[in-house]
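ESCALATION

Customer reports they have been waiting on this structure for their group meeting. Please prioritize. Original submission:
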Amino acid sequence: MDLKKAINEYKKNLDLLNAEKSASIDNLINVLISRDLVQDYLRKESHSIDSQSLSKIKDTDSDLKNAIKKHKKLINENYENLICLREIKLVSSESWWWSFKQPVHILDILDPILNLFTLFCLGFSFALSIEMISRLIGGEGDFILSIFAAIQASLTLWIGKTFLTDSPGEALGKIINRVFKWAKINRHYHAELSFLMALIIAVITFFSHTFFMPLFSTYHINKGNDARRENNIAKSFSRYQKAVNIDPNNIEAIHYLGELYDELSISNKAKEVYEKAMLEDYIAAYNNLSRLLIKEGKYSDAFQLASKALKIAPAKRKEEPKRYPETKYLEDRYASFKNLGWARFMLGNNQEAIDYFKLAIAEGKKLNHKNAAANCLLAEALEVELNNSENSENQANISINEIITEWRRCEDNANPKRADEVEWLRKAKKRIKYLRLKRKEN
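Update from on-call: job pushed to the front of the queue and completed.
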């Protein structure tokens, strides 16, 4: 066979392909093979080819390009077979007739959008995992969650590398192909599966961040409280700070830090922290700041803060019964009444102060633990009231025995491990001794 016969064979096969009743994949393959044969002759007889043959090849090639467009459906249906045949024949890059555009399956139409969502989920998961690791690493009790967060971050990268690249790592690619084959998953579900897995990782990461971070923050608060009961200020401070680092929105941890600053007499820092906690209506912060203002001589401001705490506490108890339990509610009411009485006492309104102190003591009796401040302040207010009555015509209905009883309660309830109550303890001992002598004189 010479070049002209090869061209005629090429043209004949193409005509058969274009005949509507004869169009088949075999016809198409015959056309492609006959075109290969023409190309082979062109290489061999490149110096002796006449212009008529070249013109005929050009026209037939043009018809072939149109035929490829016409029979696109046929080509798409047999795309994998054609590619396999092309690889067997080791077709060169110049053989344009073997170059077929990979068909877009109906399931692959939304793949670009799904890949964008997958990237978003992966980025979200990775950023959240890294944030969790950065907050948790280095803390006792955080090791398991740190490892969990690290696994999440690694899984995120693994999915990104494996599912979003056309040619993933060889080992990973083999694993994925085996999974697809074992599960009988159509390869066109590639993007859908990657999005689903990325979404699952994102949900797990978000759940971990939302649930476990506050849980571990509370763990550190409890450890800080234990250290505080042991009077280990440094350890408790470290724990509370760790709790805030893990969960910056944990107002309870923030407030406990304020109390430590308060105990260390770092008043400016304590006030700053209390004010931050007050933004979330943390009742104890109102009461603690009120107490600091009393110590600074700002009695009217302190009274207003304590009044506000007393006013908003019932609503908070009703709205957040789990976060604001009965015990906490009673403690805050005790502190509010105590501060109201203290502010009134410092302003010289003794009788009003005494009434507030008695209300505070009544709330304190409902609690299981001891509270000294209200008894100590009541004893002091009663003693001042008695002294004032002795120097005036109006006699107060107060006895020395009643005052001694309150000072004894102050002494019994005072916690020697707390600096402010140590002062009350010393004062109670002195006042009891003095009042006993005065009672003997009378």
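Sent to customer with the following note: The radius of gyration is 43 Å.
Escalation resolved.
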